[in-house]
Design a protein that fits this description.
heterodimer, A: 314 residues, alpha/beta, TIM Barrel, two-stranded antiparallel ribbon, 10 helices, B: 292 residues, 8-stranded parallel β-sheet, 14% strand
């Protein structure tokens, strides 16, 4: 008898979620097999890279992270445009750093103005990432949902503390929510149940499992995502059958290993190459675990990741 | 099943202050209430009690013995406090507990022998909490061997497989259940018990009962001899006494992998089926497990 490769029996399917509108809208999810297991099932939408753009000039970026963007870093609109026009970004994540109560703490309206300008300047999908401060995001993201009416943007992170405020507005203005839980599969499921009870449409939810960078908790995120996908695909857990986003860029680029130069620690090797590889490896690992969107910073890391996705989906 | 009441506990919100102030009134009242509720034994959990351990245990045993003759489970990690309790009790007590850590076994097993007291053997080793049924088996084997070398009879060993909270350690539940299934082969004369309520630690308060009761039915099926339980859960006591055979049969069907249609069951039955599925690992736990 001929040898037969054992196959996993899947019973579930990830829901498809659309981001953005028009010709550049992107569909994610839809797989009925483990990530890249295309020999066992369908993966109708390839995973995507989203470029991050900050709403205020980053003060502490490494020279080798600034390099590809140069003077646009002080202008979120120009920055977003450069990501799209020069680096071929298929979606933009606008990180609302200036609103952080532990930082600049800019007012909601001032921040929302910038969001609107960026939204107007690009035709690819926009994802708006708040401060991860439940209270501030509760106010800020509900206004973002309102101000971006008609654009089908994604707003998050939405937590179990502010899901009612943000979720209600997302329903009202037909936006997508990024449901965030602290590296815990049970809490991820619970938040999705709560969003469902609130009335958020099942085609409007993306999971943010909370991302750790390589060397800084990546393995925890990885195993939680594995369990998310096992429950969704082999246990028919309808409350986990949503695409996953990993906002990894800020996690990777804040680590000591992306900051030290070769002169400071010769055994770590060239700082630029090292940082790019750390970002690319973090993204690749998360993609293999089941990420549908990886949020990234350096165009060279993005190229490496796109190559990998291309090869695995060829 | 042999039921041990858990409600005299130094961590208790209700009694914390009474314990702190050595206020005998509320303690006595609770002991009476546990006895009235039909417990077979009363657990006296004084925590680590590092400073005042022996005096505290002696006092507590004295207070409880004023109102009941039920045997007592001396629950503390303080070795001197256990000995103080052993000296004070009138009825043959239970030492709670001896883990598989060498220093605990060395210190406490001679004491068990000297006072002729049975003990709870906690399947916890120097490496921490076991990760699956086999590691639990290893801990149990170490405890059994050490006890034999100290001349303690197997029937005086109550193995505790360590029940972990389902909300954060769902995979561990199956390891615990499987081990209980194996235990009668490993040590046929030994007994078993567990801190049942730990399964629902962190679960929304109003749902803890059904989680505890469902897990009790599962463990009971595999021969769990005893459990440390909330003395005032009437339904749980009825299950332990074998008064709810219909419900138990339903849980057994879930355990046997039968695909029950919950829409055809009563609300109560479907809640139990959903809960059993969570404890079997068939459904991922979430706080709203009864609603979906």
């Amino acid at each position: 008898m001929a040898f037969e490769i054992p196959k996993i029996k899947y019973t579930g399917k990830i829901r498809e979620v659309q981001l953005g509108t028009g010709a550049k809208a992107v569909r994610i999810g839809g797989a009925n097999c483990y990530p890249f297991h295309r020999f066992e099932g369908d993966m109708p939408n390839v995973p995507r890279v989203a470029f991050e753009v900050w709403d205020s000039s980053p003060e502490e970026w490494q020279q080798w992270a600034i390099e590809p963007y140069g003077d646009v870093l002080s202008d979120p609109v120009a920055w977003a445009r450069k990501c799209v026009d020069t680096y071929g970004a298929e979606m933009i994540v606008l990180q609302l750093r200036s609103a952080d109560p532990n930082g600049e703490n800019k007012g909601v309206e001032e921040v929302v103005e910038v969001v609107k300008k960026v939204a107007d300047a690009i035709d690819v999908p926009l994802l708006v990432w708040g401060t991860a401060n439940d209270e501030k995001d509760g106010e800020l993201l509900r206004r973002v949902a309102e101000a971006c009416e008609g654009r089908n943007v994604a707003v998050g992170p939405v937590s179990d503390k502010n899901y009612k405020q943000i979720g209600a507005m997302a329903i009202g203005y037909s936006q997508v929510v990024m449901a965030s839980s602290p590296i815990d599969v049970n809490l991820a499921k619970q938040l999705n149940i709560l969003l469902g009870n609130l009335g958020v449409n099942e085609e409007k939810v993306v999971i943010d499992p909370t991302t750790g960078g390589l060397g800084y908790g990546l393995e925890y995120t990885y195993s939680v995502m594995e369990r998310d996908r096992m429950a969704a695909l082999t246990q028919e857990d309808a409350k986990l059958q949503f695409p996953i986003i990993c906002n990894l860029a800020p996690e990777v680029w804040k680590t000591r290993e992306t900051r030290l130069t070769k002169d400071e620690d010769p055994k770590l090797g060239d700082e630029k190459r090292r940082s790019i590889l750390m970002e690319a490896v973090t993204a690749m690992t998360l993609l293999v675990a089941g990420a549908d969107i990886v949020v990234m910073r350096h165009p060279d890391s993005v190229s490496l990741v796109r190559d990998m996705i291309g090869e695995l989906c060829a | 099943m042999f039921l041990i009441g858990e409600n005299l506990n130094v961590m208790s919100k209700k009694l914390g202050e009474a314990f702190l102030n050595r206020d005998a009134g509320p303690i006595r009242k609770m002991a009476e209430a546990e006895a009235e509720a039909g417990m077979d034994m009363i657990d006296l959990n004084i925590g680590p009690a590092r400073k005042t351990g022996p005096d505290f245990m002696e006092w507590l045993v004295g207070v409880v013995q004023e109102v009941t003759d039920l045997p007592l489970s001396l629950d503390t990690s303080n070795i001197e406090a256990i000995e103080a309790g052993l000296k004070k009790v009138r009825t043959r007590p239970l030492i709670n507990s001896i883990s598989a850590r060498p220093e605990r076994m060395e210190a406490l097993m001679p004491m068990a022998k000297k006072y002729g007291a049975p003990f709870i053997g906690l399947t916890l080793s120097a490496e921490g909490i076991p990760r699956d049924a086999n590691e639990r088996g290893l801990c149990a084997a170490e405890i059994l061997a050490a006890a034999a070398s100290h001349g303690v009879a197997e029937e005086d060993i109550w193995i505790d497989p360590i029940v972990l909270p389902v909300n954060t350690q769902q995979l561990q539940i199956q390891g615990c259940t499987e081990f209980v299934m194996m235990l009668s082969d490993i040590a046929p004369s030994s007994k078993s018990t567990c801190g049942l309520s730990n399964v629902s630690n962190g679960v929304p308060a109003h749902l803890r009962g059904i989680m505890n009761r469902t897990y009790l039915m599962m463990l009971k099926r595999y021969g769990m001899y005893s459990a440390i339980v909330d003395a005032f859960d009437n339904e749980l006591r009825a299950i332990a006494r074998g008064e709810m055979p219909g419900l138990e049969a339903l849980i057994h069907r879930v355990m046997d992998g039968e695909d029950l249609d919950v829409s055809k069951l009563s609300k109560e039955e479907s809640d139990y089926v959903r809960t059993a599925r969570v404890l079997m690992g068939q459904t991922l736990y979430s706080d709203s497990w009864l609603e979906i």
